[in-house]
Amino acid sequence: MSGVTLHPVASSMMSHIGHDPASKTLTILFNSGKRYDYDGVPQEVYERFLAASSQGSFFRNEIDDCYEYRQVRGRG
User: Which of 24, 25, 49, 66 has the fewest Cβ atoms within 10 angstroms?
Assistant: First the structure.
């Protein structure tokens, strides 16, 4: 996922999100320090996620349990 820009978000759940449109991979850096990649996320969903008034609510309703994911990095 090198080269993907992670954008800071004001959320109690996550600190940064980013998206690679070529691979449709959404990257989320959670406040716990864990990083997850979600596969098959369209650019339009990412743009709505970034613009959401609550990224946490959007994540729970539109991302979590909707896309395959993997933990990329843990807390240490």
Answer: 66
The whole-angstrom distance between residue 33's C-alpha and the CA centroid of its chain comes to 13
H or E element in which residue 47 lies: helix 43-51
DSSP state of 63: I
- pTM, 2 dp: 0.90
Distances (CA, A) of 19 to 14, 23, 28: 15, 9, 9
* Residues of the chain scoring pLDDT < 50: 1, 76
Q: Which residues in the chain belong to E strands, given as ranges?
A: 7-8, 14-20, 25-30, 35-39, 69-73
pLDDT of the residue at 1 = 44
Sheet holding 69-73, edge to edge: 7-8, 14-20, 25-30, 35-39, 69-73
